[in-house]
Amino acid sequence: MKNTKLNIENNKGQKLQAYLELPANQKPNHYAIFAHCFTCTSSLSAVKNISRALTNYGFGVVRFDFTGLGKSEGEFAESHFSANVADLVAVSHFMESNYKAPALLIGHSLGGAAVLSAASQLDTVKAIATIGAPATVNHVKHLFSHDIDKIREGKDTEVNIGGRPFKINPEFVADFDKTDLPSIVKKLRKPLLILHAPTDTIVGIKNAEQIYHNAHHPKSFVTLDNADHLLTNPSDSHYAGNVIGAWVQRYFEPQENTMLETQGEQLVGHLNVVEDNFTTSIQTKRHSMIADEPVSIGGDDFGPSPYEYLNAGLAACTVMTLKMYAQRKNWDLQEVFVYISHSKKHSDELELDIETPGYLDHISKKLKFVGNLDTSQKQRLKEIASRCPVHKTIASEVVFNTIVLED
Please, is 335 exposed, middle or buried when counting C-beta atoms within 10 Å of its C-beta (0-12, 13-18, 19+)? Predict the structure, then answer.
């Protein structure tokens, strides 16, 4: 995954902090915009995880800070709901002018309400996904209801939201009553995916029910079991990103995922060392994968480890080879299982008489056959299992040719 910093101005000339997350091949098929939650920023882990999960489905995803939040210019009091929607429209116009118009909008919490409103103004948007979104815009007013008397007096007031101080004014509060979100949703004729946690204590699950009721088909609901409002557990945000990525494919024309022009190799692996820990994007011409390391050694466990991928290649090649052999022989092989593990074992443990004893790579391969096979047939299949191309490659001496490419 690679991200690019964007220079975007809103309709007031204020600069918005924005990043474009790109797929491993750096060539998105489509673009999306992510709108973060009320008082959050685009640096929230959930925002990053969902955005980066979507890159594995061929999307370039813009994540940005609303006016007055994060590193975007302006004051928080200027970050009222109408301004959030205007920021989304400004980002969409920027992308349309410089890249391609975003076709997917994703919004978290109040950002979900904002993308619903913005989608009604943007003809290029083909689909919308909301996460923990309120059914009405003024839902967030309860966060500062204890200070409402001061605000009604026409005074700028400092309120505490989520343990952080923010300065707001009467215009900021009044703006939440200007948007009739239920009416907007009723008129919206675009595919909508609603993700919500039944245990959400900030924006209750009833909000998802109301949005779903107001929306027209095609509409879908996915429950985020046991997740909290901010999706603080990485597995929840990663899951949400993958669900959105899979769901939206139904509403987009399939496109070939082109490899990096300069190489034309069989696959490419990419790791953003600064931001992605060990989480690595792997892409072939038509398929995307994620590799990672387990939590026990400092990874995030978002995908199989490198050795698990090695084992996977060996397992796939083994069962495919056995299928072809059994078919040629017209044997009754109905199913085949192969169980593989890689480890380091000492030559003494393996009872090997070698000149220099020491630890060696050891691969355990266990086979299970389903079908009407006699003992001799099973023995022959065991022998063939060692002749699959990947097995032979691993077992033989491999010549590597490593080249450093210039930018």
Answer: exposed
For residue 176, what are its two tokens? Answer: 């939440």
Please give the angle made by the CA atoms of 77, 79 and 81, to the nearest 5 degrees. Answer: 120
260 pLDDT band (50/70/90 cuts)?
Answer: very low
Tokens of 60: 């370039």
Return all residues near 91 (Cβ < 8 A) that are at least 6 apart: 8, 16, 18, 33, 62, 64, 102
Q: For residues 60 and 99, is the Cβ–Cβ distance under 8 A?
A: yes
Q: What is the pTM of this model?
A: 0.69
The tokens of 334 are what? 């109905």
Give CA–CA dist 81/111, Å, rounded: 9
Task: Please tell me the distance from the alpha carbon of residue 189 to that of residue 55, in angstroms, as a whole number.
Answer: 26
C-alpha distances out from residue 85 to 65, 122, 175, Å: 12, 11, 12
Tens of pLDDT, residue by residue over 115-146, are: 999 999 999 999 999 999 999 988 766 665 55
Distance of CA 208 to the CA centre of its chain: 21
Q: Determine the longest span between alpha carbons in the chain, in angstroms.
A: 91
Is a pLDDT exceeding 80 seen at residue 162?
Answer: no
Contact 82, 59 (CB under 8 A): no
How far, in Å, CA of 48 to CA of 45, rounded? 5
Per-position DSSP letters for 206-260, written without gaps between them? HHHHHHHHHSPSSEEEEE-TT--TT--SHHHHHHHHHHHHHHHGGGS-----PPP
Burial pattern 55-93, b for ≥16 Cβ within 10 A else e, equals: bbbbbbbbbbbbbbbbebbbebbbbbbbbbbbbbbbbbb
Please report, in angstroms and rounded to a whole number, the separation of the first and last CA atoms in the chain.
17
Helix (H, G, I), strand (E, B) or coil at 273: coil
Partner residues linked to 166 by β-bridges = 159
- CA distances to 29, 211, 228 from 246, in Å: 14, 21, 22
Tokens 């032979």, residue located: 392
Residue 291 near residue 269 (C-beta atoms within 8 A): yes
Tens of pLDDT, residues 2-49: 678 998 999 999 999 999 998 866 778 999 999 999 889 999 999 999
